[in-house]
C-alpha cells in the first residue's frame, strides 16, 4: 500500500484537484444564466463579457486573464452562498446560485391606455436599458480609439 501511494501520489493529488475544478465548472454550467434580478453567477459573466469586448491587443492573454478573473468571481459567489447558509439566511448552500429565475416580461403594449400613457410619460425601465447599452458601446468605441492612437 505504501509503495502504491509513493508511486502514484502525485497523480492522485492532480486528479483530485482537476476533479474539484471540473465539479466547480459543472456547478456554474448548470446554474441559471438569465434572471431579471441578476443573482448568482450572472453579474460575473456579464462583467467578463463587457471586459472581453474591450480586449483588442494580446487577445489570447487578455482572454485568459479574464477567464481567471471570472473564476475568482464565481468562487466568491459559491463562498457567499455557503456563508449565507452557515448564517441561516439560506435553506441550502446552493440556494444563492441555484434558484428559479425571474424573467422580464416582454414589452407588449396591447392596452391602448398603456400605449397612450407611455407616449405622454417616460418608460424609465426601457430608457435605463438603452442607456446601459449605449454606455457599453461608448466604452468599446473609446477603447478602439485609444488603440488606434497608440503607435505600433
Could you characterize what this model shows?
The protein is 68% helix and 0% strand. The protein is mostly helical and 152 residues long. The chain has two domains: 31-103, no CATH class; 105-152. The longest helix is centred in the middle third of the chain and has 29 residues, at 59-87. The N and C termini lie far apart (60 Å). The mean pLDDT is 84.
Summarize this entry quickly.
With 152 residues, the protein is mostly helical.
Q: Any low-confidence stretches, pLDDT <50, length ≥5?
A: none
**Shape designation:** flat
Range of strand content: under 5%
Order of helices and strands: HHHHH
Q: Give Rg in angstroms.
A: 23 Å
What is the chains' assembly state?
Answer: single chain
**Global structural class:** mainly alpha
User: How many helix segments?
Assistant: 5
Termini separation (Å)?
A: 60 Å
Count of domains: 2
The averaged pLDDT comes out at 84
- According to DSSP, the number of beta strands is 0
Q: Fraction of residues in helices? A: 55-70%
| Main sheet summary | none
Write the layout of secondary structure elements.
Elements: H1 2-29, H2 42-53, H3 59-87, H4 112-120, H5 124-149
Helix pairs in contact: 2-3
Descriptive tags:
152 residues, single chain, 2 domains, mainly alpha
Amino acid at each position: 500500500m505504501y509503495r502504491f501511494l509513493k508511486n502514484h501520489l502525485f497523480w492522485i493529488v492532480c486528479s483530485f484537484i482537476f476533479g474539484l475544478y471540473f465539479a466547480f465548472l459543472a456547478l456554474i454550467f448548470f446554474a441559471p444564466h438569465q434572471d431579471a434580478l441578476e443573482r448568482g453567477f450572472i453579474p460575473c459573466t456579464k462583467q467578463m463579457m463587457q471586459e472581453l469586448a474591450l480586449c483588442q491587443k494580446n487577445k489570447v492573454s487578455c482572454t485568459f486573464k479574464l477567464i481567471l478573473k471570472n473564476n475568482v468571481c464565481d468562487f466568491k459567489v459559491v463562498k457567499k452562498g455557503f456563508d449565507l447558509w452557515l448564517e441561516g439566511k439560506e435553506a441550502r448552500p446552493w440556494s444563492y446560485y441555484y434558484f428559479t429565475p425571474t424573467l422580464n416580461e416582454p414589452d407588449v403594449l396591447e392596452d391602448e391606455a398603456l400605449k397612450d400613457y407611455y407616449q405622454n410619460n417616460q418608460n424609465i425601465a426601457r430608457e435605463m436599458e438603452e442607456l446601459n447599452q449605449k454606455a457599453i458601446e461608448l466604452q468599446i468605441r473609446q477603447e478602439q480609439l485609444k488603440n488606434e492612437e497608440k503607435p505600433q
